[in-house]
Each structure stands twice: as C-alpha cells, then as structure tokens.
Amino acid sequence: MIIAFLVFLGVSLLWLFTLATAEEESPEALYVADRSLSPVFNGFAMAGEQISVVTLLAISGGIALFGYDGFTYALDILIMLGVLLLLAQKIRNSGRYTLGDLFSLRASGSGPRIAATAVTLAITIPLLIIQLRAAGISTALLIGTPNYGAQAVCTVLMGCLVACFATVAGLRGNSFMHVAKVPIALATLAVITLLAVRKFEWDPGSLLSAAVGKSMAPDDYLRPGLWPYTASLGSLNTFGNHVVYILGTAVMPHQILRVGASRTGRTARRSTSIATGLVGLFVILLITTGFATAAVVGANGIGAVDATGQSSLILLASDVLGDGSTGRVVLITLVACVVFLTLLTTVTSVAFTAAVSFAHDVFARGKRRRSDTGEVRTLRVAAVIVCAVGVSLAAAVLRYPTEFLVSFSISVAASCVFPVLIYSFFWQRFNRRGLLWSAYGGLLLCTVLTVFSPIVSGTGYALWPEASFNWYPFQTPGLISVPTAFVLGWLGSITSPGDSELDFRHVQYRILTGSAVGTKATDTQR
After folding, report:
1. At what angle do helices 39-50 and 171-198 cross, to 10 degrees?
2. What pLDDT digit, counting tens, does each position of 205-225 carry?
3. Residue among 259, 348, 263, 250 nearest 17 (CA)
C-alpha cells in the first residue's frame, strides 16, 4: 500500500512539474491563466476548490462523531455556492481578480491594496496551518505510526511538496490537478459508500440505525446540540456559525481568483453552476460516508485513533473489507491518494493566492516601475515564504487544538471581504474611508473576539482549557464583527469629506456589462 501510494505521489509530482514547465512566464498567465479557462473546465476546478482537506476529513469526521450537527455544516457548502453564484458575474465583470484589485474598485491609492494583502494573509495562513496539520495526521496514520513525532515529520514533508508546486506552478497547472481530483474523489467516496451499505444488506435504514447505536450519545445523535464546541453556547451561537461560514467561504481570496480566471461574467456564472452540481454530489457522498463510519467503525473506534474524527475516512476504508484482502489495500491506497491530491491542490491554491496578493497588489504597485520578470520572481519568493511559515506553524501546533483558526479565518473573510464587496457593488456613497474602516475594523474585532472566545480558553476543547478569560460568549467572532464591519463601512463613508472617489456610475456600468464606459467590447480583459 505504501509503495503504491509513493508511486502515485511520484507520478503526480512528475505531471505537476510538466504542467508547470509549460506555463508562460507572464504575470497574467500565471495569475489567471490569461482568462482562457472554459466554463466546464473552470467549473470542475471550482468544485475542486471545495473538496479541501477540511471538508473531506473534518466534516466527514464531524458527521461520524456528532451526527446532525456535522450534517448541517456539510449543507452549508452548497448554500455558500449559492451566495457565490450571486456575486460571480459581478466579480468577473469588474475585471479584477485579487482582493487588492476589488478593494481599489472604489478607492485609489496604495492603502486599499495594503489592507487587502493584510486581510488575505490573515485568511490564508490559518487555512494553511489547519490543512497541513490534518494532512500530517492522516499520513502518519496511513504509514501505521500515528504518534506526535511521525505526524510532525509527515506535516513537514507534505508541506515541502506543496511549497515546491506552489513555487513553480500557476493557476492553469493547479486547475488541471483540481479537475483530475474531482472524479477520483467522487468515485472513491461512491465505492466506499456502496461497500458500507453492502455490509448492512443494502439497507440504508439499518446503516443509520447502526450509526445511532454506535454513537457516543444515541439519544442525541440525530438532534442538534451534540457538537462539543457549541453545545453549551446556545442556538444563537449555532446560527451565527452557519451564517459566518456561508458568507466567509463564499468570498475566500482563492475563490475570487478562480472566478477571475473565467472568460466572461456569464461564463463565471456558468462555471459556478457546474461547480454547484458537482459539489452537491460530493456533499451527498460525504454525508453518507460520515454516517457509514459511525455505523461500521463506531465512535469509540474513531476516538481511540483520533479524537477530532479527521481519520474517520481512512478508518472506514480499512474496515469495509476484510483484513488481508487485496481490495482493502487498494481502497486504502485510493483514499490516501485522494487525501494527497486534496492537500496538494487546495493548499497550493491558498498559498498561491497569498503570493499573488503580495506580488500583484504590493510589489507591482510600488513607486518604481516593476518588470514582469521581477513580479514573477517576487511571486516565487512570496510562495516559498508563505509555505515555510505555514509548515513551521502547522508542525508547532500539532499537540494543540486548532479549531479556533478555522473560525478566525472564515470570520475574517466574512467581516472584511463580504461587506466591502457588497458596498462596492451596490452603494453609491462608499469610499476610501469606509473601505479602510470596514476592513481594518473587521480584522481587529475578529482578532480580539477570537482571543477572548470559548474556543481559546475556558472550555474542554479550547486552546488553553485551564485558563479562563473567555468573556466573549460565542464561538465565532463573526456574529459581532460582520454587522459591525457593515456599520463601520457606512459610518466611514458618510463622514468622509467627499463622495466616492471614483464615479459609481462607471463602476456600476462595468459590473453589469463587463466593459468600460464608451467601449463596445462585451468583456474587457485586465
């Protein structure tokens, strides 16, 4: 099994570097593939962005351990794509593809772009840590040594592979890997699901009954309130978590970059629609495998290996077939390959987006004129630095619960990006001061409220459970920071001495038609 996995890893890397060497060395070609991706191809790649390490391992484990609560978080992925569908055409028609570009849509100068880069790093670094940590734990389990030392080594090695690819590849090469990952992941989950149902004589009802019976709380497994991070925080906290998750994941920087690679605004909508259908199938399979893991492995079996449930998918693959069978080895190898592809593609997307933000929004916009070669070189260096920081922190926090990082990252996106996009697209008086107040105010609030929340101190699943400085009563800061960011954007705009610095009528015409005022083109490329 390990030999087969290493062969797959080597073939994948060979293909990746082949794709990378074929990429053009111009910034536009690297960032958004010259906006030449077809709707179907980009739709598959967009669906691949949703099949991340967090969704594949953490949510499936959440369903296996906590039933109904994990199930609802899986459904949030589909609702999120509905939000993105409403914004995709406007984002593409604007001609922008980084947060810095979108922030400068209504405000001039370097301030908005610097704010966008700070927000991008605050979103991407925690995501890198979470996904690399999950990949290290899963890889250590795969090779049969799930101890701290092996997990740290696996985390560093997987992070180095990601750093190599993020450094040499562009969006087009990563898109090919996303497109390859989607059918492989769907087929593997489908096979595992069928094998699990077969163990219960093809009766889904018997499978669900077994899942309830083997859960940690049979009476509460199919009812809300079992999720340990929110069980004692009330229904308002749960509602806030879902709203923030939907809004935040819809406007992630790597998601916006993917939308920007579409040919036109209409093809961006079509790609998002295709992605919604594919992700819908993925969510159905993910939910089924979660319940199947609870039925076949049981909560005690999962908890004995990994209390967070992130290893549940590999445990299910190892239990649906008999010990020593060739099919069991093949199935576990397939799951390992899917996890590796998921790690490689999603973490590369996140790291690449952070590097693009720095190279395009900070370096290329300096006072001195920058050459394309210098910008590409800066992109490479920034990718290495971002990956090095992510790998170092992921290895350092392996012993600690890191769920607060997910909450922080998504809350920053919902608080700092979503309000700015809504105001930029729909409100005439929005301007530079409103944008900076909204972005920096949302970022500051997310940081402060996360530090003083129950997921950092005072609860059993907190970073420091023995300490107690959790005066903020909710798990996610977004419940307060999102509406406050909207208020700050409004207040800053109305107190600014002038109206919007850039004519809103031109911006509105652009996001509706895809072309600048006075041009006949239906879609002007940047």
Report:
1. 60
2. 888 898 888 888 888 888 887
3. 348
